[in-house]
Amino acid sequence: MRRKEVVTDDETESGESVEEEVTGSDESIPANSKKDQLFGIPNFEFSYKRLPKKCIKFSFLCVNGATFFSGITAFIISIWMLADTKLMSRLVGQRLFVTILLFVGLLTAGISFLGILSIVKKRRRFLTIYISCQVISLCVIFVCAVMSFSFFDKIMRKLREDMVNTIVNYHSLDWVTEAWDNTHRYLLCCGIRSYRDWARYNMKIPQSCCSSSIDKCLIMTEDLAYKSGCLKRTLILLKSNVHTVAVSALFISITLASIQYKKFAK
User: Fold this and answer.
1) I want to staple 130 with a disulfide (CB 3.0 to 4.6 A). Which of 22, 34, 48, 115 is the partner?
2) Over the stretch 204-258, which tens digit does the pLDDT of each residue have?
3) Burial, 67: exposed, middle or buried (Cβ in 10 Å; 0-12, 13-18, 19+)?
């Protein structure tokens, strides 16, 4: 009996010592390590501090990559338009705008490539130059946006002249027909100021002015045509989209570049 009591006493002492070791080991685990565990698995790789940096870098590369390809596309299109003599003969007086598009596309592609290179190669100088170029571009766009309000009358006159010169040749030139039909469908408009412009030039309202289903527009009438003119729709499109997209893209690029610059500075 004494031996059994001794054995039980030893077992209780050993059990208590094991429990103390277990509790002691639990108490020795810091609270931060418990928080960094998910179902007992450490999640150091999924730290919230690492995720935003990767997201910012990825967003920066995506924005500048899209801008780079847009600039290259504008550059190639402008070269193609300048090289095509037949096309330029149709776009009389537009050579200056095509040339400006060429230089803007080349400059945009160069700045975007510089931003991508600064992140990939981790060059602070390139990133500084990139931020400076973006700030200068933002200032230029802001000045142009302010000045453009005074030039909208001139732009409206120029657009009206081009529309008047082309609407006469709607049935005689294929490219004029295609251009007007695409304008009607895209801007949901008809004529220069309204659908009545077609009657002034002794022409029927085109089916591309149809505001209903094609079956109902086999015989076009004034009731089925779009009420708004294409000149007004074009100006609304220019005012609403051009400055908004350009300024938003520049703000995003400058913000992401500044964050990356602070990261490199540390």
Assistant:
1) 115
2) 888 888 888 777 777 777 888 888 888 888 887 777 666 666 666 667 666 766 6
3) buried
Cα 189 from Cα 192, distance rounded (Å): 9
How many angstroms separate the Cα of 203 from the Cα of each of 116, 197, 217, 223? Answer: 54, 9, 16, 16
User: Contact 220/206 with Cβ under 8 angstroms?
Assistant: yes
Sign of CA dihedral 254, 260, 261, 266: positive
Helix (H) or strand (E) holding 12: helix 2-28
> Which residue intervals of 29-123 are DSSP H helices?
31-35, 50-83, 85-90, 95-121
Q: Could you give the 3-state DSSP secondary structure of residue 84?
A: coil
> Rounded mean pLDDT of 168-184?
87
Tokens 């920066």 found at? 60
CA–CA gap between residue 104 and residue 70 (Å, rounded): 11
Per-residue confidence (pLDDT) for residue 260, from 0 to 100: 58
Q: Specify whether the CB–CB gap between 167 and 205 falls below 8 A.
A: no
- Contact in structure between 171 and 201 (CB atoms under 8 Å): no
Rounded Cα distance, 51 and 55, in Å: 6
As a whole number of angstroms, the distance between CA 253 and CA 131 comes to 8
